[in-house]
Amino acid sequence: MSASAPARPTLPTSSTAAPTPAATTPTTIAATIPPTAPAAARPGLDWRIRFAILSVVWGFSFLFIKVGTEAYAPFHVSMGRVFFGALALVTVLLVRREPLPRGLRTWGHLSVAALLLNSAPFSLFAYAELSIPSSLAGICNATSPLWGMALSLVALSEDRPTRRRFAGLGLGFLGVLTVLGAWQGFAGVDAKGTAFALLASLCYPIGWIYVRRTLAGTPGSPVALTGAQLIVSTLQLAVVSAAFTSAPTSFPLWPTLSVVALGALGTGMALQMQYGLVSEIGPTTAQMVTYFIPVIATAAGVLVLGEQLHWNTPVGAAIVLAGAALTQTRSGPRKKG
Description:
mainly alpha; 63% helix; globular
């Protein structure tokens, strides 16, 4: 989802579901969903077109955050994001006549998932973009698989590391240093904003691990579970916003439209589109959208917002993505003999 990147706030629907790299939101980023129908039975746009649309929507999420924070407090941007995302998914549920999940235990786990996958990372990205470019926030979002790999080293994940994945972690770390211009002493980089963005990307794999251990096999469709999660996140951020910020006194057009688009498109429609892609082409291909997000976020920041682009930013981003790709590889079965 969603973020912001993306990511992305989706929940596994079976005990075999495994998380994929973050997308932003986020919301972002998606759980694997077993295929439910052959591609030939699915009318509508070709999956490649939907894949491209999804990449653009999630890539532009960081631009929407940046524009939103020009008029609204970060907590308000995050609350608007999850509110309009929840509204989009609840509308889908009403059309389908599908209920929200039931049970206090389920809603309790969804509350923790909402904090880890929505409320905390979305707010951190919004605060980060007060002082760093949207392109840098998008690149920081791509480090989420690297954080997941690092967590596996301290036994917080069932997914144990391999030499190839170790190499991916080291390569990704090198990419982060390249993006930040470590050889220049990190000159020109806001340390606080960058730390917020990296911390936001760390929230996603922690949330995925929690979801896998507590909500795998929970009755209900991904749309119902995610809609419920976004409802809880809206309530969480409403309480925090009331406690720490004052209500907006005006609603400028472009920042308001950016927040609406961030929620309805980047957190609502995009998740629906990703569910369809995962079911049609499988999670391995669908998750490749993750690697297009920082590219689009950087292009959007430069072309639309006029953000500066130095050579180390795209080079470092490419290294980060290569490292992230390595951390997602799986070792094949060993040959006997």
